[in-house]
Specification:
InterPro entries: FBXL15_LRR, Leu-rich_rpt, Leu-rich_rpt_Cys-con_subtyp, LRR_dom_sf. It is built from 25 helices and 23 strands. By secondary structure, it is of the alpha/beta class.
Length: about 600
């Protein structure tokens, strides 16, 4: 009788392998899966729907392997240009990889111009979503190329500075089925372009005209859109209350309105808008007006279904909080950042009725103390995000209440809350689902408090310890063993950290963003210990790290192939030539990953070297 076992893969059908593959959510798990054997790599190639390319050099090979893509993201390949697209279409049969492609992200692809864009659009006939945001050189010719996507449903053109009314006209004529359009920072677009848009694209459900120089005449045109649900016009200086009055009787399906930083809009104008849309779900009027009118307070009584209200920068009162509490029982998010007049009593009144709140922003509400936080913790048991930056009166008692009642908490900002100490962090560590914790300028915490967090908050992705002067190597050792999923860490001016701490950080293999500014005790030895293990670093701040010399940067250039930005104070030509030489060596060895850019500050400014 044979004792040889049958390989498990030989008894699993392709259908079963595909089902197993679909259960893998984390990128690291999917990577491990496809590296096991050729069969699992083949299954991954068949089932992958989304591809984010980090290096343009691998684009041709990847598109040959992944032929069933729905989404292609090239936003981190700024060096892509017309020649790249021409070469791609020449060497890879686009009828295979482009046939199912629905979403294309070309954000920041500044090298791509009309010719390349026209070729790409021509090859991808089924595109429904395109993102060309921050392609600052895009103009009307590029807009004309995009107009070839007749089936386009979504288009993002944020900060395409060269696109004017002419380019927008070409798009709306060619893409009449648009449902979502973002024109943020497209400064050459005027009321004329918006008017034509509203006549041609009657299917629009989302429109963003933030920071455009449009006037209230544009709102007259927008009011005619029968299906518009979400309108954003942040920072439009020429829009006033008259424009909001146009919207009062238009846009019957409107659910979300964002007029933040519109200086000419008052609470009276917003009241008129609310009067015609009592079914609003989301209102953002942050830093829009300083005083709340009685009519606005009265109108909030109609907002029975309101989920979000952001009124950052207004002068609050107990009256408005009581009104919101009594009428807006469905409220999930409230923004009160930098609001004067926010008191403990006002917050207690607010949360007594709004028990479903999940996101609360009290940044710079300096009168808030433990009583308010205790009320929030007791009433809002499903709280996910709480921002308390510069609320100096809160102490460990607040964290004790959060640790007892808000076990679902994911984001907590305690920046510049001087009353927070190690005892408070011990209580907070009961919130084991924390993803983001900001403790910058909390000078009373130490390694002991960090140990409590690291012991229980294993899901932590982001941690800010800016200028926490009592944090040292011991705290980093605890982080490295307990918070393996940490991706973003700020240790700037944590002056007790040494090379030993850097060695500990090397065990955080998911780390991508790291700020080490002002750590004058770390040397090239510590930097070497860090970068030889943290292969995913994309951003690194080394300003004022005086003891790191050229040997440290040599190791950095060799091991950190995904780095996109390095900040450093000192600079010499020898270092520049060293970096260039190492990148050249990478190409010679056919290791095509290389630094896209190194940002080095010199003499008070920043210079970019490619």
């Amino acid at each position: 009788m044979s004792t040889r076992s049958t390989p498990i893969l030989s008894v699993l059908t392709e259908d079963l392998l595909i089902r197993v593959n679909e259960k893998l959510v984390q990128d690291s798990d999917r990577k491990t899966w496809r590296l096991i054997c050729k069969e699992l790599h083949r299954v991954d190639s068949l089932t992958r729907k989304t591809l984010r390319v980090l290096h343009v050099e691998f684009l041709l090979t990847l598109l040959k392997n992944y032929t069933n893509l729905h989404t292609l993201d090239l936003s981190v390949c700024p060096r892509i240009d017309d020649w790249t697209i021409s070469s791609l279409l020449h060497h890879v049969d686009h009828s295979i990889w482009a046939r199912n492609l629905k979403c294309l992200n070309l954000s920041r692809a500044n090298g791509l111009k009309f010719a390349g864009l026209e070729m790409l659009v021509g090859a991808c006939k089924g595109l429904e979503s395109v993102d060309v945001s921050y392609c600052c050189g895009f103009g009307d010719r590029e807009a004309a190329a995009i107009s070839g996507c007749g089936g386009l449903r979504e288009l993002r053109m944020d900060k395409c500075l060269g696109v004017s009314d002419v380019g927008l006209a070409k798009i709306v004529v060619g893409c009449g089925r648009l449902e979502r359009l973002s024109l943020k920072w497209c400064m050459e677009i005027s009321d004329l372009g918006v008017e034509l848009l509203c006549k041609k694209c009657l299917e629009l459900k989302f429109l963003d005209v933030s920071y455009l120089k449009v006037t209230s005449e544009s709102l007259r045109s927008i009011a005619s859109l029968p299906k518009l649900e979400d309108l954003a016009m942040v920072g439009c200086p020429f829009v006033n209350d008259v424009g909001l009055q146009f919207l009062e009787n238009g846009c019957p399906l409107l659910q979300k309105i964002d007029v933040a930083r519109c200086d000419c809009v008052s609470s009276y104008g917003l009241s008129s808008l609310i009067g015609g849309h009592s079914g609003l779900l989301h209102i953002d009027a942050g830093h829009c007006f300083s005083e709340v009118s009685p009519s606005f307070v009265k109108c909030t009584q109609k907002l029975k279904n309101l989920n979000t209200i952001i009124i950052d920068g207004v002068r609050g009162s107990n009256t408005i909080f009581q009104t919101i509490s009594s009428n807006c029982n469905s409220l999930i998010e409230i923004g009160l950042s930098k609001c004067e007049g926010v008191t403990n009593m006002g917050i207690i009144q607010l949360v007594s009725g709004c028990v479903n709140l999940k996101i609360i922003n009290l940044t710079c509400c300096r009168s808030i103390a433990d009583a308010a936080i205790s009320a929030i913790a007791n009433s809002c048991r499903n709280l996910l995000c709480l921002k308390l930056e510069s609320c100096n009166m809160i102490t460990e008692k607040s964290l004790e209440q959060l640790g007892l009642h808000c076990l679902l908490l994911e984001v907590l900002d305690l920046t510049d809350c001087c009353g927070i100490n190690d005892r408070g962090l011990e209580c907070l560590s009961r919130c084991s689902r924390l993803l983001c914790l900001k403790l910058g300028l909390c000078t009373n915490i130490s390694d002991k408090g960090l140990f409590y967090i690291a012991s229980n908050c294993s899901e932590l992705h982001e941690l800010d310890l800016y200028r926490c002067k009592n944090i040292g190597d011991g705290g980093l050792a605890a982080l490295s063993s307990g918070c393996k999923k940490l991706r973003k860490l700020n240790l700037s001016y944590c002056i007790e950290v040494t090379d030993k701490g850097m060695k500990s950080l090397g065990y955080l293999e998911e780390l991508s963003d790291l700020e080490l500014r002002g750590l004058d005790k770390i040397t090239s030895v510590g930097l070497t210990a860090l970068v030889t293990r943290c292969k995913r670093l994309t951003y690194l701040d080394l300003k004022h790290c005086e003891k790191i010399d050229d040997s440290g940067f040599q190791v950095l250039a060799y091991y950190s192939r995904n780095l996109r930005q390095v900040l450093n104070r000192d600079f010499n030509l020898e270092l520049l030539f060293l970096l260039k030489y190492l990148c050249f060596c990478m190409q010679i060895r056919k290791e095509k990953k290389m630094l896209e850019a190194v940002y080095i500050s010199h003499a008070g400014g920043h210079k970019t070297y490619k």
